[in-house]
């Protein structure tokens, strides 16, 4: 009981931690935020149902006392049950009789909790990769968001907002980029592509695991097969998928022998499990597909930066093409990637403010491609001079 309550507390803590993370792109939100939230919330609810509810009720003979009935319910819940259609007789051979065991029933909340952790795992890997790269992208996003929340609530003019970004955000971002280059750690975009690849592989593995958990000897693709069964009017009593009524064998010790009894058990939660897993099957397939497309997109973006540069040029809206191209060379792939991440997480408007402010700061402080400056950060030199 205490371990189950502890599991619920851990699930709730995971939900709170997930909701505090930066949003990320669509695939990242689907994997590490929305899917984790769905799985963790569902797992916590089902754990509470298993603890304080009656997940299984077995029909025992009338001569059984309440103690025996409770024992049978607990035994069948822990040991597992098996499915045999009610219109078919029970085989005397125990192996043949238990060809379709229902072993997943008591493990569903824990499986969902593990999957929630696994969906969050790539986000943890990404944080580690950020540390290796030498640039705190997550901290940068939070810093820009804080600055944007401060300036957008005021009725300041455009020039006043730009000044705020030049004095704070642009200097902060440039310092991070320059320090990372000084450490020869300028592979942030490559690390992000690696993260998207890990996320994609993880999403497909989660989907395959769910499909393997649910498939039977007759179905290989569980989701479409269940939809087809519903369309044809084939219910659980025939297919055996998430059966509501199952059988359970247990032994009673007699003075001179051991008697094996068989009882019928009602699996109440299978009514919900069927709908839940049908939704999760298609949802995980959707998430894995979007993750694959996202991985391809970022891989292409790393190799071909034309689209990202065009976006920055739209943000700047300047006619001096030579100055713009020089600024883009100063940014490099990692700088383009950082501004792109700002636009994804916070919006195009703050990203445009940041791009303009960074260009102004780069011109004022004469930032060069070879990083040939006196070794001090822009903040150390005095951002107020901007």
From TrEMBL:
Its main location: other. Belongs to the pannexin family. One of its GO terms (biological process) is monoatomic ion transmembrane transport. The gene is inx-6. GO terms for molecular function: gap junction channel activity. The keyword NAD does not apply. The chain crosses the membrane at residues 30-52, 104-121, 189-209, 276-300. One of its GO terms (cellular component) is gap junction. Keywords: Cell junction, Cell membrane, Gap junction, Ion channel, Ion transport, Membrane, Transmembrane, Transmembrane helix, Transport. It is found in: Cell junction, Gap junction; Cell membrane. This is Innexin. InterPro entries: Innexin (IPR000990). Structural component of the gap junctions. The lineage of its organism: Eukaryota, Metazoa, Ecdysozoa, Nematoda, Chromadorea. It is a multi-pass membrane protein.
């Amino acid at each position: 009981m205490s371990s189950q309550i502890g599991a619920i507390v851990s699930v709730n803590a995971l939900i709170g931690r997930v909701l505090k993370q930066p949003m990320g792109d669509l695939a990242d939100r689907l994997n590490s935020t929305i899917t984790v939230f769905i799985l963790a919330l569902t797992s916590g609810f089902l754990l509470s149902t298993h603890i304080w509810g009656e997940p299984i009720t077995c029909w025992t003979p009338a001569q059984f006392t309440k103690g025996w009935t409770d024992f049978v319910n607990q035994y069948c819940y822990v040991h597992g049950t098996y499915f045999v259609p009610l219109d078919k007789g029970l085989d005397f051979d125990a192996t043949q009789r238990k060809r379709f065991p229902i072993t997943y029933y008591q493990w569903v909340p824990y499986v969902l909790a593990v999957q929630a952790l696994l969906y969050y795992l790539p986000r943890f890997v990404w944080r580690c990769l950020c540390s290796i790269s030498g640039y705190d992208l997550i901290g940068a996003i939070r810093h820009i968001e804080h600055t944007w929340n401060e300036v957008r609530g005021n009725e300041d003019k455009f020039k006043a907002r730009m000044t705020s970004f030049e004095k704070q955000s642009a200097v902060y971002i440039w310092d991070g980029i320059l320090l990372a280059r000084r450490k020869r750690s300028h592979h942030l975009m490559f690390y992000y592509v690696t993260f998207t690849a890990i996320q994609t592989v993880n999403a497909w593995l989660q989907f395959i695991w769910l499909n393997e958990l649910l498939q039977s000897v007759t179905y290989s693709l569980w989701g479409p097969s269940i939809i087809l069964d519903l369309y044809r009017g084939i219910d659980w009593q025939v297919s055996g998928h998430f059966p509501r009524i199952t059988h359970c064998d247990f032994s009673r010790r007699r003075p001179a022998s051991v008697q094996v009894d068989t009882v019928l058990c009602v699996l109440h939660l299978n009514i919900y499990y069927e709908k839940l897993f049908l939704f999760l099957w298609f949802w995980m397939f959707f998430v894995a597909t979007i993750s694959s497309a996202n991985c391809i997109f970022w891989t292409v973006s790393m190799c071909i930066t034309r689209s990202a540069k065009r976006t920055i040029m739209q943000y700047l809206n300047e006619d001096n093409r030579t100055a713009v191209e020089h600024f883009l060379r100063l940014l490099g792939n990692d700088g383009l990637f950082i501004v792109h991440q700002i636009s994804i997480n916070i919006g195009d408007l703050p990203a445009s403010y940041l791009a303009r402010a960074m260009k102004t700061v780069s011109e004022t402080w004469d930032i060069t491609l070879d990083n040939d400056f006196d070794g001090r950060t822009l903040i150390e030199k005095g951002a107020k001079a901007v």
